[in-house]
């Protein structure tokens, strides 16, 4: 098998995670990366993730088999003219943005449709930057591919195989369908989460009581509000029509709910919660979405000195890594005194097995 040369324009959270996944899963591979942050390139070289750092987009990318555009959306558009000067016709050009219409339009404008396939790894984190990248970010996550009208089947199949080698699950969609789908299941929820957090901030009293007791359901549905403000600003400005359309539908549904609430319509309110519960419970409980599944459980412990340390020590002694641990002060919507969060499902399951003793009671919740 010939060695693949893969290039990256931008090496942040997603670009870095793709590079790490490829390095971890493929032996015959050579990677070149350009990033405006020199320290990022230095660290990627030290980590052994990339083989070559480029200080600019130049001939070092001319023999790439794949070139990933991983810079912010507006930078990708500006980089296309430069990229076109150096890549060969055999190179498959792709991106990692969560909005596809804009990049497809720019690709058509510069005449690169025959070698472009849009890409959207539906994986992410509230944190960003190369420092937070990891190969497992893509593991079992959907990776959407959006070919153009000029994409040859063999090029698409080769890219699909590459995505599988990262540990991700390829899914092929029309780019316009992709943008409508992601507006509903990813972009609109971020808008709603941000607006809800700001509503509570503006409604709270000067003592900050709402903030003090915020937990349970509020934290669950607003967790994604901690994401990059700049990134979501750009997403809203590039998928505006779809987000606005669905936001209008959502505002209409909220108005209807408000009318039902004001009229105290018992049956309508019950149907609201019951239909949502049934549909939500039908979702696949897997890490295949824009925000990764949370691996955690709550556990009851005795209220006496040393109990928290006892749990943490037992996990550490058995080489089970903890991502986060803390006391749950507001348990209106969940059971268990101590909440423990893990990096992966294997660690969560190992911890459950270890702590499943008469001394502790474990409470799991659907995510």
What does this structure look like?
The structure is a single chain. By secondary structure, the protein is an alpha/beta fold. Helix content is 47%, strand content 15%. It has 13 helices and twelve strands. The chain has helices spanning 13-25, 38-46, 73-86, 101-110, 153-165, 175-203, 209-213, 216-222, 229-238, 240-262, 266-281, 307-317, 345-355; strands spanning 4-9, 29-34, 52-54, 66-69, 92-95, 117-121, 142-147, 169-172, 295-300, 324-327, 338-342, 361-363. The strands form three sheets. A five-stranded parallel sheet has the order 3-2-1-4-5, covered by helices on one side. α3 (73-86) runs parallel beside α4 (101-110). The longest helix is centred in the middle third of the chain and has 29 residues, at 175-203. It is globular, with a radius of gyration of 23 Å. The two termini are 42 Å apart. The model is unreliable at 286-291 (pLDDT under 50).
Can you summarize this structure?
The protein is of the alpha/beta class and 367 residues long. It has 13 helices and twelve strands. Helices cover 47% and strands 15% of the residues.
């Amino acid at each position: 098998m010939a060695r693949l040369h893969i290039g990256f324009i931008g090496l942040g959270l997603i670009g870095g995670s793709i590079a790490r996944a490829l390095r971890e899963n493929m032996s015959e591979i050579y990677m070149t990366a350009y990033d405006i942050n020199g320290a990022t390139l230095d660290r990627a070289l030290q980590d052994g993730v990339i083989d070559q750092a480029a200080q600019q987009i130049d001939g070092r990318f001319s023999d790439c088999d794949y070139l990933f555009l991983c810079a912010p959306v507006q930078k990708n558009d500006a980089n296309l003219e430069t990229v076109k000067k150096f890549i060969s016709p055999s190179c498959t050009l792709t991106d990692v943005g969560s909005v596809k219409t804009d990049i497809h339009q720019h690709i058509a404008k510069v005449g690169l449709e025959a070698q472009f396939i849009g890409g959207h790894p539906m994986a992410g984190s509230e944190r960003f930057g190369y420092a937070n990248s990891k190969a497992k970010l893509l593991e079992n996550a959907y990776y959407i591919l959006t070919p153009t009208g000029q994409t040859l089947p063999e090029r698409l199949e080769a890219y699909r195989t590459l995505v599988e080698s990262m540990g991700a699950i390829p899914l092929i969609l029309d780019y316009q369908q992709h943008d409508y789908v992601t507006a509903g299941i990813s972009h609109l929820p971020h808008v709603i989460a941000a607006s809800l957090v700001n509503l509570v901030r503006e409604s709270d009293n000067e003592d900050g009581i709402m903030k003090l007791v915020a937990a349970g359901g509020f934290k669950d549905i607003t967790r994604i509000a901690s994401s990059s403000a700049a990134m979501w600003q750009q997403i809203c400005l590039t998928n505006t029509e779809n987000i606005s359309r669905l936001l209008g539908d959502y505002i209409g549904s909220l108005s209807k709910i408000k009318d039902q609430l004001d009229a105290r319509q018992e049956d309508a309110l019950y149907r609201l919660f019951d239909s949502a519960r049934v549909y939500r419970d039908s979702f696949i409980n897997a890490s295949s979405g824009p925000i990764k599944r949370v691996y955690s459980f709550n556990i009851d412990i005795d209220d006496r000195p040393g109990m928290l340390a006892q749990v943490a020590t037992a996990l550490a002694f058995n080489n089970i890594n903890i991502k986060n641990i803390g006391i749950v002060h507001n348990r209106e919507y969940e059971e268990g005194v101590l909440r423990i969060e893990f990096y992966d499902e294997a660690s969560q399951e190992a911890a459950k097995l270890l702590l499943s003793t008469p001394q502790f009671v474990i409470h799991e919740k659907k995510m």
